[in-house]
Specification:
Radius of gyration: 37 Å
Number of strands: 18
Subcellular location: Cell inner membrane
CATH topology of the domain at 343-491: Alpha-Beta Plaits
Structural class: alpha+beta
EC number: 2.7.7.65
Keywords: Membrane, Transmembrane, Transmembrane helix
Distance between the termini: 76 Å
Helix content: 40-55%
Order of helices and strands: HHEEHEEEEHEEEEEHHHHEHHEEHEEEHE
Catalytic activity: 2 GTP = 3',3'-c-di-GMP + 2 diphosphate
Organism: Pseudomonas fragi
């Protein structure tokens, strides 16, 4: 009776243990994997947002430079060739009609003196416009000014005014204006896919938007400043570029925003990505995986009940289980991390090859390979990155060897290569080929690209008085020579 109870307890422990070793790791691994996946997606979204912001900044800079050159060219004609000015304007507008909405000249009194859209018949007072006042108040300060968006009285559209003062004989004589429609920027930005809830904006340091593009409607007035909040975009004491995660002042939603601030023009290129867009596939995958994990959990629960009843009927002795486990362990010949032969299997293979060499003659060479400064890789990048480096090195080596060659891991970052029917010179050539392949290969990791080098020692078998252990020892001596000579090299000679 007592023995029967013990068997029941053992069967119950087996069922509970099964659930413990399956459910907890499964859910734990799922949670960790999802967190890592989300972190990767967040990192990718950050890179995408910043790359787009850089592209838009370059676009804005090129537009500003071009318009400034155009203004200065037109200003020369206003001052030196007033008779041909209108023809020059007409020619430039024909050439850049999509970018330039209007060219105008404001007199020193603030009245519109010329417009490329219509003939000026009455008095249009523009003295209150910011882009006139900034020059009239600083008459000899010849700088490009970029205004807030204004609604043109003549053009009837929202546009950004690029202006410079007219200075004749050292005196302020008015302002020349090139109007660029805000639609020029927003139409360009709208061609870029930033998701259904994403947004691209060009904003001034004065917090007034110059252009905004989004798939969804955003209620933003071009003549009003954005809310006065402590954000790094507008703080010139903060870095001129960066990422901001938080509530967007455009629509009040949580967002990831990349910005690039141009101090000279006073403009900020901004790209806002919404987590609801770039995490949409993640959330879908998360729901599927959690649902699948729940189904698997129910299946495992049912299976644990089956284990209980099976164990109750067929419980084996601990000795038999240990014996079976020992036999299974003896059959493990592959290194689980790298896929190379395990040390025991590899040395067994070397003994076999060496025995055949002694019996049949021929050629046999052996290479010892060691990854240079591998400990630094682990110390700097961490063991997961180190494991990835080991796998990549093994993959490169295996791809450069014949099917008849054997590649095994002897421990840590040290590996061995058996080259059957290969003399010392050929083995040295193989070692050099592997060294060059590894040196030139860039290993891509989550911490960035990594390059490593290897040192290799080459030895070949002797037909008299030799053994597998002596062959390994000579290769180890050659490897020591390669390391002492500076690493990242092949050695096949002894050194004193």
């Amino acid at each position: 009776m007592h023995r029967h109870r013990v068997i029941k307890i053992k069967a119950g422990l087996a069922a509970v243990g099964f659930l413990f070793i399956t459910l907890i790791p499964m859910w734990g691994a799922l949670h960790v994997w999802l967190n890592q996946e989300r972190a990767l997606i967040e990192r990718a979204a950050s890179n995408d947002a910043m790359n787009l912001a850089i592209a838009f900044e370059v676009h804005v800079q090129s537009v500003v430079r071009f318009v400034d050159v155009l203004i200065q060219d037109l200003r020369e004609h206003v001052v030196q060739d007033q008779g041909g000015f209108q023809d020059v304007v007409k020619e430039e507008l024909e050439r850049y009609r999509d970018m330039v909405a209007q060219v105008s000249v404001i007199s020193k009194n603030g009245n519109l003196a010329y417009s490329s859209l219509n003939s000026v018949t009455g008095v249009i007072d523009l003295s209150g416009r910011e882009h006139f006042r900034v020059h009239s108040e600083n008459p000899l300060d010849d700088k490009l000014f970029i205004s807030k968006p204004v609604f043109g009285r003549v053009s009837g559209i929202w546009s950004i005014q690029f202006t410079r003062p007219l200075i004749v004989h050292g005196k302020f004589s008015g302002v020349i204006v090139v109007s660029v429609p805000t639609a020029f920027f927003s139409d360009f930005y709208s061609k870029i896919n930033v998701g259904n809830n994403g947004l691209i904006a060009l904003v001034g340091l004065d917090r007034v938007p110059r252009a905004v593009a989004s798939k969804k409607y955003v209620d933003i007035r071009m003549d009003e400043s954005l809310p006065d909040r402590d954000l790094p975009y507008f703080d010139i004491s903060k870095p001129a570029e960066g990422l901001y995660r938080g509530v967007s002042f455009f629509d009040g939603s949580e967002s990831l925003t990349a910005y690039r601030r141009q101090e000279n023009s006073g403009l900020i290129a901004m790209v806002k990505l919404s987590p609801s867009d770039y995490l949409a596939s993640y959330y879908k995958q998360e729901n599927i995986l959690y649902g699948s994990a729940l189904v698997v959990s129910l299946f495992l629960l049912a299976f644990s009940c089956l284990i209980y009843f099976v164990a109750l009927q067929h419980l084996r002795s601990t000795k038999e289980l240990k014996h079976a486990y020992g036999l299974l362990q003896e059959r493990v010949n592959i290194d689980s991390l790298t896929g190379a032969l395990s040390r025991g299997c590899f040395l067994e293979k070397l003994d076999k090859e060496f025995g055949e060499f002694l019996i049949a003659g021929g050629k046999l060479s052996f290479i010892l390979l060691d990854i240079d400064y591998f400990k630094k890789v682990n110390d700097i990048y961490g063991h997961p990155i180190g494991d990835l480096v080991l796998k990549q090195v093994v993959s490169l080596c295996c791809s450069g060897l014949r099917d008849s060659d054997s590649f095994g891991r002897l421990g840590g970052e040290e590996f061995g290569i058996i080259l059957a029917q290969t003399d010392g010179d050929s083995a040295t050539a193989v070692a050099e080929k592997l060294r060059m392949a590894i040196e030139s290969f860039c290993i891509l990791t989550s911490r960035g690209p990594i390059r490593v080098t290897v040192s290799l020692g080459v030895a070949f078998a002797l037909s008299v008085g030799d053994s597998a252990s002596k062959l390994i020892s000579r290769a180890d001596d050659a490897l020591y020579c390669a390391k002492r000579a500076g690493r990242n090299r092949v050695s096949c000679t002894f050194c004193s």
